[in-house]
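This follows on from our talk about sequence and fold. I would like you to pick a protein and set down its sequence and fold. Go ahead and set the record down below:
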Amino acid sequence: MPQSPLSKLAFFLPIQRRAVSRPPSHVEGFDSGINSSTAWTVSLNTPEVELRKSQVEINVDSLSDEERDPGIESADEERDLLNERGRPARALYGFQGKPEFRELTDVEAGDELEILKENAGNGWSLARLVASAGERDSHEGEIGLLPSTYYTFTAEFALNPELDLPQAKSRRREASDSTITPRGSPIRQSTALPLVPQNTGEWFPSFRRSLLGGKSLNRFSSFVTSGAEEWVLQGTGEEAEAPPKHVQEASDSRNEGDNTHASMLGGTAEADRHFVEAGPAWRTKVPAFRVLVHSPAKRTSTLSGAYTMYALTSIFDAPPDGEALAYGGAEAEGAEEADTIRITVHRRFSHFVALHTALTRQLPGIVLPPLPEKQYAGRFSDDFVEARRGDLERYLNRVVRHPVARYAEVLTFFLGCESDAEWKKQLPYYLSLPPKGPSFYAHVYHPAFNIDVDEAAEAVERFASHARAVSKGVQGLRNIFGKVREARIEMSHAERLLSYSLLSLITSKPLASAPTPEISEEDEEHTDKKKGHVNEDGAWCWRDGCDGCLRLTKALQKTSETMQTVADLYDDHARRTLLSAHESLKSVAHPSTVYQAVVDTHISTLTRYREATQEGCEDEEVAARCETVLNTTMAEMETYHTQKVEDFENLAKEHLDGEIAFYEQVLTRLRAARRAFDSPQYDALSESPRQPSIYERELDNPRLFPAPLTQPCPHVFDSAPMRPVSVAIQEGVGLLLGGVGSPTRASVFGKFW
């Protein structure tokens, strides 16, 4: 029985869809222009999940760069909250907030609180300070935000004398027979653990990226914001699901692990389970594929105005023979007949923002490439649209290259959903999912006791030093590459000037703006009236009927025209081929900034690990969870190592191939010009009079001033690049007041001065 293309798609990529009950959508119409064909509906029998109660309302038609927080929606709601009496609570730890962010400014452990809104968004609660535990009274009655884990709800409890609470005992770890061990058991200790501050998000991301070179203004480290600290100290609130039996018995060899992959693809919630192999390195669960971003088109919506829509084509190549079982290919009948599967959808930039937001929340321990920043001016120009298309294509391909992010559920939905109705129904669900936090690490499975603390400390030190060196070196390479492109433009200018000069020599027509100090102005005025410079056949000779000079003149004219072609090749090479390579260097720039979160998390985890294994203060559970985080960070370092080798190898090959193709075109044209001086072509040139060159008309107005060289759009982590919004403001001020911003325009107010 023939299989549909959608059923064959399971051979390449596991797609998980959730059957959820949602409130009716508040959005009417979808202006993305996506195909209304059958959606990408291959399922892995994911169990039903419930949306969290605080469902975020998302306007799909006009997704903005910043998602609205599910906190206080209006001033009326805030006023109602302030007047009502909240649930009694007591502060567990001191908290010094910042008033500019509406946080409680002075809270000490033991203060009485009233929680007005428990879930104010992003792990914060709206609270009122009722009574101070100490002698302070100046802040009583203050209302502000407080992290949800900094307090506990209070109630009256009576002591049960018959209840015997056993003393907490320390357990020693014993070696496990399994090679992959889950780390999901929560800690239950009698002593209070340090509180985990919540992630308050980034402040002014464009300002942060441009002026601070990618450094975050967040008060908390990535060790805290990713949920790694909470996982290390407390575990997760729910028991981690044990890995399947076949995973526990799997070995590190690929041959014995082939059946493992086939079994995993049929499990439930497989996209949320991640495996680390010996190395440590991430296990690849699905075959690699690539994405093309192409065919940008300008669209207009009544809600969001004009925008650019991009076509995204995912290309799935059939795995080589012998790897079908590893990726579950044997389950799909007829998969061997399909060499390549292509799926095309249409997305706008705001959809990429939604994808990046969801991936960041669901994969906190994974390094994701930075998303290109939003453009504020000139976003419909041809140069910018092409640059944005290339940036988005590089972003997506770096995401799908990651062995873990590649099979994220929201990514498969983003790349495969062709149905308008399905898109409007599912996208708000993915954006409303809370951050994974510690539960991400609870579903990371790795070989038991495979981390040596000294080796891990040395590895992160060497990695951080290497990343800094690469960042500095790539930045220098990008600067030199820009100079190389400028040199090619100068070479184009020189070749063109040489061509014009040679053509002027054999035609007696002066070249405008060419320096001729030996000739006086009087001689130049009568140059065209002088006889004898060319004969009646147009040959460069004073004798009529001179075949030798006719052949020479026509051969030199062909040489001049060839130089014009070579000049065009130099110009095109600098503006297209070298620009593409110059843009590609952004994908390998700033590894030190991109992986800084991994380095910080790794170092902080090592500190916790040493504390948990210190003699006399052993805590086997904390040490075990530290191993999970260390496996994750070292797997990320290994991923960077693998991708760095691939990136620079591809960059070098693509640049050399481009240079070879360019010089081959130049050589082909130069050889053709050279053959014009050899028989029999040279002898045949005297058979007819010389025809004027197409470039003679340009001698009066030569093309010696090329257009400015297009530069790559800046990387989001470049330090203080010129932003399009700054250019727009400068031009606007110049238009109003005249001067620098708009040198060719008169001031609007000029007539009044």
Observations:
- The chain has a mean pLDDT of 74.
- The two ends are 84 Å apart (CA to CA).
- The chain is about 40% helix and 10% strand.
- Residues 30 and 61 are 6 Å apart (CA to CA).
